[in-house]
Amino acid sequence: MTMAVTQVRLPEGLIIQVDSLVERGLYTSKSDVIRDALRRLILNQQVGTIPNTGDSVKEIREIRNKLSKNIKSFKDIEEINKLGE
Questions:
Q1: How far is CA 11 from the centre of its chain?
Q2: Where are the domains of the chain?
Q3: What is the mean pLDDT of residues 1-12?
Q4: For 38-60, what is each residue's pLDDT tens digit?
Q5: Cβ(13)–Cβ(37) under 8 Å?
């Protein structure tokens, strides 16, 4: 798995909250927090774009599962975005 590195400047208050999530053991690192936040943002952008096939809650859960376990690159995100097509 290849990961790109990017620098992000965040307000100190936000960093304190991120550190708190790591300290409480909810995440293993700041990077994990940021990656999860971005996955959730991408998922939220998909709301309303998924065809209604009867069990949208189940469909969203399946997509969340794929997001949390399968994203290793931007290409993976593009694949998930195609689920709504």
A1: 21
A2: 13-84
A3: 87
A4: 888 888 777 666 666 667 777 77
A5: no
**Which structure tokens are listed for 8?**
């992000």
67, burial (CB in 10 Å: exposed 0-12, middle 13-18, buried 19+): buried
Q: What angle do the packed helices 56-70 and 74-81 form, to 10 degrees?
A: 170
Written as six digits, the tokens of 49 are: 């774009």
pLDDT bracket for residue 12 (50, 70, 90): very high
Determine the length of the chain. 85
Q: How many CB atoms lie within 10 A of CB 20?
A: 11
pTM over 0.70: no
d(CA 17, CA 79): 31
**CA of residue 31 relative to chain centroid, distance:** 12
